[in-house]
Amino acid sequence: CDGSLVDLAALGDFCHEKSIPLIVDVTQSLGVLPFSIAKVRPAFVACSVHKWLLGPYGTSLLYIAPQYRHSRARLEYHERALEDSELPSWDQLGAMGPAGYPTELVEGT
Question: Could you tell me which residues are beta bridge partners of residue 44?
């Protein structure tokens, strides 16, 4: 990290125009830099409060935008949702197997 700042309001506008859910981790900045849910319009905001909010270690905040509060639709499909990810060999091989990356999602994971 080089200390650069991201214009979250501009990024939020871009994501909103493209219907991309914006997920923001503000752990390193909340309490030090201004942050506005109304300006950024994120889908989700996560924050560990032990940094600049001086909260107890292990405590976190999570904001979920109203349109996502009743949805169970996945925002991300990660390697643990792929075919054969439940097999013990998965942790040894990682996502890449002899035939390449698995491509099929496993329902319910």
Answer: 23, 64
